[in-house]
Each structure stands twice: as structure tokens, then as C-alpha cells.
Amino acid sequence: MLASLTRILLLATVSIALSKVHADVSTPSIFGDHMVLQRNHANPVWGWANPGEKVVITIAGQSHATKADSNGDWKIALEPLPAGGPHSMVIKGENSLSYADILVGEVWICSGQSNMQWPVSNSYDGDLVAATANSSQIRLISVPQVGTQEPQKDFDGQWERCSTKTVSNFSAIGYRFGLQLQQALGVPIGLIDNAWGGSSAEAWVRRDILESDRRYAQLIANWEKTESEFDIEKETADYQTKLNTWTANGKDGQRPRAPRNPLTGNHRPANIYNGVLHPTIGYGIKGAIWYQGESNASRAYQYRHLFPLMIQHWRDEWGQGDFPFYYVQLADFKEMVSEPGDSDWAELREAQTMTMDALDNTGQAVIIDVGEGRDIHPRDKHTVANRLARWALAKDYGIDIVHQSPNYKSMKVKGSKVTLTFDHVGQGLYSFDTREPTGFSIAGKDETFVWAQARIVDANTIEVWSDSIDKPAAVRYAWANNPQCNLFSRDGLPATPFRTDDWPGVTVDNHK
């Protein structure tokens, strides 16, 4: 009888405890101490409580109330606040939350793959950058890498003040971009780093969006095959057997490689959308910066529509209209070539450039001069961040500053020579290091390219020719994985790689 009573009391205690946990008002980790709210924006704040529970938020003299719905979800939109702070936020239900040291300013997402993820500590002058990174006006938060097909509501992370310690492992491009904005605008800056090294663009897109578009039918079919056949337990067992054999043989030769699970990785469609992006969607932002494309280079023609689709998808999900989206074109990488030819990286760069015509409020930072031939991760992140910051400062904050690289506009053939005109030349075209522009190739109708000579005619015009081509049909510039090229504007921005032809490239038929 006593044991039975004890068991009943224990169950009642557990039931009360579980009920209390469920009833507690809570918010996802994107909200918390030290966060930055987007200025002049009706910032949404959301979370969970008991169904029907009244929730009240107070901040900066304003108060808002709502009730949790039948699922326990609630959301409140704050009245827009000007830049400043610090503020405190109190959220009351059956319990009370209090978040302190909240600033209001400009919030940017820093996204993409490893070059955006690349930390301050591993970039050039990383120690110097970290040593001087004691700005309480810049706040940082990173979203862990979780790959899943199930939309996540929260993540393990928290806002932190910028300091030598916190900035060292933060995105170098993200931080330096934010630093430029903070110094130029004099307002708090919030940076959300959700980059995942090696990620493919399709992993950042909701699965049903891809499945409903026949252009991705082969991509989805390949993944469905992988999903039905891959067995991580078998792969792990096979690996362990190989490892045991390798050990028994005195560890002779290369150590067996542990299996990777593609089902939880960064290439599977929707995996990163669900695990990384979804918990932050709706948080008040100004815009996003992006550095990705390496993992999609073999499918560059597909990227022509996949990348704009991803951007528009994000904008639709956020519900903030066409927020600014500025991205980095691929840097120069791999071996230099002795003769002109085709290149998947050149085609990916072309797809990135085309995105500016496909979507409004996008901008491309060209870094064809910043890469390292033998390293896919250029250590100079400062130049990259500066070129992204130029776009934001010019387009979103009204600062009169050159921001776009010279871009091919038109061509005219006269005899054996081609005249090229360019837009966005700033103070005029300039060939760095030598008087003659390098990096041009030219072809006749046979589509065989040879290196070309070139000269700057005036501020926005270049003449190109080759003694071996009598009737030129097309010109290309910086059309290689790692091109030798030197055309800039006098403002220091490199010319955008381009081609005047539309002949099928090496990735035209790859949609997998």
C-alpha cells in the first residue's frame, strides 16, 4: 500500500514537473542577451507556451500581448525602434524571461560554404584583427551545422559581444564586413553566421520547392536512390573491419577513411534549410551576404536558375520583401593553363553574374584577383569583405562609393578587330602591372580560341585582336579556373570575367 502510494505521488510529481516545463514561456536561441534587433523594422518575436497562455512582451516603453495558439506557438511584432540601446526585454506568461543588453541596428546573415565559414584566426592578419576586435557595438551569433529533412525550430547558440575571444572563430568575411558597416554608419551591427563548408546550393532550399520543378528531377531522383540504398550501419561495420585489418597489419599503408553519412550531410536537398536556416527564418534582418558555388561548379548551367531560385525562396520565406543579397563570385583557383579553353569554374562565375539580371537587389563582389592557385580558401578575406561592404554602403545606406566591377556591355567587329565596351568603369579602365590588358582570348566561327592582344582605347572601351584570326566571332576574358588577367577600374575593382559567345559549355548537360 505504501509502495503504491509512493508510486502515485512520484507519478503526480513528474506530471506536474512536465506540465510546468510545457507551460514555461520560451523563445528560440535567436533571441537572448546581447542580441541586435533590426532598426526601423517591425521585428517579430516568437516562441512557445501552454496553449491559450497569455504572453506579454515589454521593451523600450512598448508593451504587446498575445495568446499561444492550440499548438503552443505564439508570435508578436514589435513596433519599429531606432538604432541605439542597450534595452531590456521582458517576456511574461506563467513564468517570466528577461533579456538584457539588447541593441538596435543593422542585422546581416553571413552564409554560404567554407570561404564564408573561414574564421578570422585562419585569415591573413587574423591575430591582429582579433587583437583589435573589442567593439561592443558588434554582436555575433553562429548557427551549428545540422543536416536533416525535418524543419528545426531552434539551435544551440547564443549572441555574444564582439571581442578578441569571440571573433577569432567567427566568419572572417562576416566580421570584417560588419566592421566596415559599423565604422561607416555608427550604429550597432548584428551578424548571424550560418555558413557550412562544402555545402551545395540545393541543400539550402526547401525540398518541395525542388521536387515541384522539373529542372531538378534528375537531381531529386539521384538522391532518392541514395536515400533508399545507403546503409550507415553497414558502412560503419565495413569500415571497422578494414580498420582492424589495417591495425593487424602493423598500420601499413593509408589508414581507412571513416564513412560519411550523406543523409545528414551538406549536399542533400533541404538538409541545411531545415537544420540551419529554418530556426532563424523571420528574424528581422537587413540582408544577406553569401560566398558559395565551388560545390556546384560541375553543374554551372543548373546554377543559372538554382541560385536565383534559392535567393527568391529565402525572400519568400522571410516575408521581408526583396531584401539585399550580395554574393562573392568564385576566386581564381587551380593550375594556370597555357592555352585558352573551357572551364567549369568560369561557367559558374558566369552563372553568378547572370543572377544580377535575374533578380533585383542583388550584387556581385568580383575577386578574380584574390584567389590562390593551390588553395581553394584564399586567406585574404579583408579584400573580399570590403567589396561586399561597398555594395551595402552604396545601395542600402546612401554612401557615394564605387561598388560594382566593370562589366562587359557590348561588342562590335570591324575587320579583324573587336571593340568591347564596358559599364561600371568608375574612373575608367586600367591594366594593372603592365600597360597591356591580359587575359583576353578570341575565336572565329570554328570556336577555337587563341590568346589575344588588347589595348585600352578610352575609359570604357577595349580593342582586342589576334594576328591569327581574320574574322573574329567571339571574345572571352578571364575564362579559366585560374586566369592570368589584369583589367581593373581605376578605383581598384577587377573587371568581371565574361564571354561574348553563348556556345555550349562543359557543364551544359550536367543536372545531377
Main traits of this protein?
512 residues, alpha/beta, eleven-stranded mixed β-sheet, disordered N terminus
Tell me what the structure shows.
Strand 3 (54-59) and strand 4 form a beta hairpin. The protein is built from 12 helices and 23 strands. Residues 1-21 have low confidence and may be disordered. The N and C termini lie far apart (67 Å). It has a domain at 407-499. The strands form 5 sheets. Strands 1, 3, 4, 6, 7, 8, 9, 10, 11, 12 and 13 form an 11-stranded mixed β-sheet that branches. Strands 14-15-20-19 form a 4-stranded antiparallel β-sheet, with no helix packed on it. Helix 5 crosses helix 12 (381-395) and helix 10 packs parallel to helix 11 (344-358). With 512 residues, the chain is of the alpha/beta class.
| Separate helix tally | 12
Count all strands and give the number: 23
Q: Report the major sheet.
A: 11 strands, mixed
The radius of gyration computed from the alpha-carbon positions, rounded to a whole number of angstroms, is 27 Å
The global form is: globular
Report helical residue fraction.
Answer: 25-40%
Task: Provide the β-strand percentage band.
Answer: 15-25%
Overall mean pLDDT stands at 94
* Straight-line N-to-C gap: 67 Å
Query: Which class of secondary structure composition applies to the elements?
Result: alpha/beta
Low-confidence stretches: 1-21
